[in-house]
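Thread amino acids onto this structure.
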């Protein structure tokens, strides 16, 4: 086909190549189009339900223009359904059916912006209405009939697609923003669409340590318990364990102090010289190690007042570095007070002690 396109190009004719679901082509197959697109031998039109940034190779995407087709609104779907009910030539007009706004709105909500899906549902509902009306004209499509026609809504969802990441992002940000209702909704959207429950559980654990941390240490325990519950009792009962965890996280005090602290540690590990462990912190199980100074001048905290010494534990190049700075939220308020107390005791331990037996002259 490409050879024919090259020949057609010589006579001033450009071949149009339309590819439906172009995201199903692998990278090598997409790459094969490049020379013909660049030479102008073909005009490539690709259709995809996925985000092209994720699914189309950058070289091909940079040579194309992207048009985004948005889903129809529910009002637009209802208007199309009304038109289908009235159209005697191409629609269901000959059946002289009646349908209330609520019934059509239910079909529109089910269709998720897809007119074809809405038309299919309307046809099934129309058939049921005529059947229940004894085959007589002017049957009514009620909400009950629509419910029977739809059975269970099939949510638009792809576990590997863009919507997967959009929904988990919405759940995470709703939790972070302390909105339990939104957190429950996005959680339900994922689970009812068939998302892997343990994936959701793992993400809730991540939220507990990233956005709550030590402001409420119980958050981590609760999310791990929810994960275990899902694994133990399965679904759909496990949904409630995940819902309990999501609401708890949304209402818990928030702190990213620990998350920020560890990020700074990672940067220092990457950017600074990896100095050896100070001698006084090293283990000394052998006589040779003790001779080399391992463990020398180590101060056993339990032998000191307040269980705090002035012993330095960071390497020299980071001796004054402070990573963890707790907030005033939840349990971290008490942690801040404890850290201030430790700081004072360390300063007292570093202060030279006067000799009570020495008399002033």
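Threaded sequence (361 positions):
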């Amino acid at each position: 086909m490409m050879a024919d396109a090259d020949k057609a190009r010589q006579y001033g004719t450009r071949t149009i190549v339309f590819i439906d679901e172009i995201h199903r082509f692998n990278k090598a197959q997409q790459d094969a189009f490049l020379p013909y697109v660049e030479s102008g031998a073909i005009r490539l039109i690709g259709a995809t339900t996925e985000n092209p940034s994720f699914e189309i190779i950058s070289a091909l995407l940079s040579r194309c223009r992207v048009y985004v087709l948005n889903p129809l609104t529910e009002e637009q779907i209802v208007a199309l359904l009304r038109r289908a009910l009235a159209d005697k030539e191409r629609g269901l007009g000959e059946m002289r059916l009646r349908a209330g706004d609520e019934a059509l709105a239910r079909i529109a909500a089910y269709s998720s912006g897809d007119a074809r899906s809405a038309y299919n549902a309307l046809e099934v509902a129309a058939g049921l209405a005529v059947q229940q009306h004894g085959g007589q004209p002017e049957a009514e499509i009620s909400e009950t009939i629509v419910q029977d026609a739809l059975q269970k809504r099939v949510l638009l969802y792809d576990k590997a697609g863009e919507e997967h990441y959009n929904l988990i992002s919405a759940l995470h940000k709703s939790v972070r923003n302390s909105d339990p209702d939104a957190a429950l909704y996005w959680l339900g959207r994922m689970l009812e669409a068939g998302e892997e429950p343990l994936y959701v559980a793992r993400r809730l654990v991540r939220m507990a340590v990233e956005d709550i941390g030590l402001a409420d240490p119980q958050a981590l325990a609760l999310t791990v318990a929810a994960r275990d519950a899902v694994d133990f009792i399965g679904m759909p009962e496990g949904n409630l364990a995940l819902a309990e965890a999501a609401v708890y996280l949304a209402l818990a005090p928030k702190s990213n102090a620990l998350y920020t602290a560890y990020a700074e540690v990672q940067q220092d590990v990457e950017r600074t010289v990896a100095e050896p462990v100070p001698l006084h912190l090293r283990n000394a199980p052998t006589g040779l190690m003790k001779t080399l100074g391992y463990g020398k001048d180590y101060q056993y905290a339990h032998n000191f007042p307040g269980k705090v010494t002035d012993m330095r534990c960071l390497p020299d190049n980071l001796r004054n570095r402070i990573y963890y700075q707790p907030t005033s939220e939840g349990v971290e308020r008490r942690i801040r007070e404890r850290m201030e107390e430790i700081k004072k005791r360390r300063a007292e331990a570093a202060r030279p002690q006067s000799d009570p037996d020495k008399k002033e002259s």
